[in-house]
Amino acid sequence: MAAPSVSPERVAAFRLARHHLSERAPTSALARVAGDMVGAQAQVLSAAQISLWARTRGLRLEDVNAALSEQRTLVKTWCLRGTLHIIPSNDFAVFVRGSARRGARWTAWMLRAGIPIDAVDRLLEAVRDVLDRPLTRMEIAGRIRDTLGIKIAAKSGRGWGGPSNATGFQIAGTTLSLDGIMFLAGQRGLACFGPMRGAEATFVRPEDWLPNWHDMPAEKAEPELLRRYLRGHGPATVPDYARWTYMTAADTRDVWRRLEPEMAPVDVAGRVGWVLRGDLAALRRAKLDGPIVRLLPSFDSLLLGLVDKGHLVDATHYKRIYRPQGWLSPVVLVDGRAAGVWSYERKGRRLAVRVEAFRRFPAAVRSRVTDESEDLRRFFGIPEVTVAFR
């Protein structure tokens, strides 16, 4: 097919609108926001909370917590890229089943390590059986020990913070950490996060925890997840989707081919990407009414959608955002491009926001950064805010 040309400015406007970054959605649409941004990465929970704030008008921190623990319209679980995400509970199966092929890599690793898969499967079934109510990690370990008659073992390792010891179970001479077991259970849709119990996380069966629970086979979830991705991140390519899901190239092409009849190519500054046919009209009429200024946290969905980040940041500033070992700096987004980085710190009754601009901000942008910082203060429920520019 001939690929019609679309300007980078229209693409930026299209993506900002789809992510609710050009105009925030109401708080009542919080679950829809989490779905439209195709999940909020929650490896760092505060980052996911700020991602939702950046897209939702009048949102408070307690609204996010209530959506996770009381209304249960949101749920935290492992899915895309094998990382924690906050997703709409109604779309649990789309995200988990749609990215399930990623779990095949863990199975392959266990086979190479000589870990018997049937023993792992028994452990995972035991996890599912014991989760008749929300349980902490140690409660799960105790009930598995009693159910299977195996001893709890300690596993040494390294976390992000340095050396650590973790609870686990010994299988074929290898100790599998309980965190690893719960990760696999989450990847298979056997468990999700339940309500916090003080400072401790709990886990529960999704079919028992989530309202309006419905499962979905992978054959249906995979193309639906790709639709969601293209609605939020298109125009995109097969390598983009492979990086976004961490599926193998062969698996990605297989899913992509099944949805290809619904796609159309577009040319963006000499590069061809693909969008859903139904989105072509919205893409062609998208426009920016700037300046649109947002404070995006580390690991924000918009920062992770595509392999090439040239649409977001100049090459000279790339390493200011995309740092070693997978860390990302929070970004000051102006009209869809990174104009600087920022950080915040809570100091008693005050929220201190620090902004480092790549180039000196115009007065209108500085004013809107200050407004966003004030709204972030309101979101956290902190009385005062200070904003420092560099």
Beta-strand segment tally: 17
Number of helices: 17
Strand content: 15-25%
Per the principal axes of the C-alpha atoms, what is the gross shape? globular
Major sheet: size, sense and barrel closure? 5 strands, mixed
Mean pLDDT: 93
Question: Could you say which structural class the secondary elements and strand pairing correspond to?
Answer: alpha+beta
Which radius of gyration do the C-alpha atoms yield? Answer: 22 Å
Question: Which spans of ≥5 residues are poorly predicted at pLDDT below 50?
Answer: 158-164
Share of helix, binned: 40-55%
Distance linking N and C termini: 48 Å
How would you write the strand order of the largest sheet? 13-14-15-16-17
